[in-house]
From TrEMBL:
Annotated PROSITE patterns: S1 (PS50126)
Protein name as catalogued: Eukaryotic translation initiation factor 2 subunit alpha
Family designation: Belongs to the eIF-2-alpha family.
Entry annotated with the keyword Protein biosynthesis: yes
Keyword Heme (UniProt): no
UniProt-listed CDD domains: S1_IF2_alpha
Ranges for domain S1 motif: 12-83
Annotated GO MF terms: ribosome binding; RNA binding; translation initiation factor activity
Domain of life: Eukaryota
Pfam families for this protein: EIF_2_alpha (PF07541), S1 (PF00575)
Subcellular location: Cytoplasm, Cytosol
Length: 297
């Protein structure tokens, strides 16, 4: 199945291919976004350097980003180049290909559920959205919050719309990301604990509905500032603002703030390590408390 309305790519277009076979003249590939039509990378277009081993440059079965040099639509010949592709081109093409693959997967799901062929659904929905939004993937993401804006001008049968919107919601709704920063807050002036407590409350008050901020004590003077949000960058920036306000508040009362770890998205492993640390500290505090009780006896 092709991903886009045109049956052939245009010269200078970046495309994702899979290597089928390697021969003396070059490599035969299939264009994954264009219904697996065949193309060829001539030996001279594989690398800018002198080729000692083709196998080190290109392998059968591997996906490669290449650029289209010539297209003969009548004969079906497509000449491609790997050596003219920059690192930036690779990133750009991979991003577009992954988006297109997701769109195709959603269209396939709707096709299976409605018994309507994929090309009909593409003609009805995906391809018009490619033309209007630059990529149907971006339109699908927007449709989660603004379905009427995206689909209002398209004539989509009700059963198709039902399966389309439910699959888009399941596949593309952003998942919350945990963002965390580690800080040390100290204040040895007269206001001491109250100054720290007020500063941390000020930090939490920066919260918004989409980026809630919580501050937890690990062990004095170490605290963690955390947020679960779908907008990772927005959460990082808001945590930075919160930390800045905490620091300003502490400084005003003669205290000090040290950032041990700047705000960043954390993994499950990071969370487990933090939980283990907090558990260990709690256990050690309990043991100390027990020792003091024994001394009192």
């Amino acid at each position: 199945m092709r991903y886009y309305r045109p049956k052939f790519p245009e010269p200078d277009e970046l495309v994702m291919v899979q290597v089928k076979q390697i021969q003396e003249m070059g490599a035969y590939v299939k264009l994954l976004e264009y219904d697996n039509i065949e193309g060829m990378i001539l030996l001279s277009e594989l690398s800018r350097r002198r080729i000692r081993s083709i196998q080190k440059l290109i392998r059968v079965g591997r996906n490669e980003v290449v650029v289209v040099m010539r297209v003969d639509k009548e004969k079906g010949y497509i000449d491609l180049s790997k050596r003219r592709v920059s690192a930036e081109d690779v990133i750009k093409c991979e991003e577009r290909y992954n988006k297109s693959k997701t769109v195709s997967s959603i269209v396939r799901h709707v096709s299976e559920k409605t018994d309507m062929d994929m090309e009909t659904i593409n003609e009805m929905i995906a391809w018009p959205l490619f033309e209007k939004y630059g990529h149907a993937f971006d339109a699908f993401k927007l449709s989660i919050s603004e379905p009427d804006t995206v689909f209002g001008d398209l004539n989509i049968p009700e059963n198709v719309m039902t399966h389309l919107t439910s699959n888009i919601a399941r596949r593309l709704t952003p998942q919350p990301v945990k963002v965390r920063a580690d800080i040390e807050a100290t204040c040895f002036s007269y206001s001491g604990i109250d100054a720290i407590r007020n500063a941390l409350k000020l930090g939490e008050s920066i919260s918004t509905e989409s980026v809630p901020i919580k501050i937890k004590l690990v062990a004095p003077p170490l605290y963690v500032v955390v947020s679960n949000a779908t907008d990772k960058q927005g959460a990082i920036e808001l945590l930075e603002t919160a930390i800045e306000r905490i620091g300003e508040s502490l400084k005003k009362d003669g205290g000090e703030l040290v950032v041990k770890m700047k705000p960043k998205a954390v993994s499950e492993t990071d969370d487990l390590e933090l939980a283990a640390l907090m558990e260990r500290v709690a256990r050690e505090n309990k043991e100390v408390s027990g020792d003091e009780d024994s001394d009192a006896d």
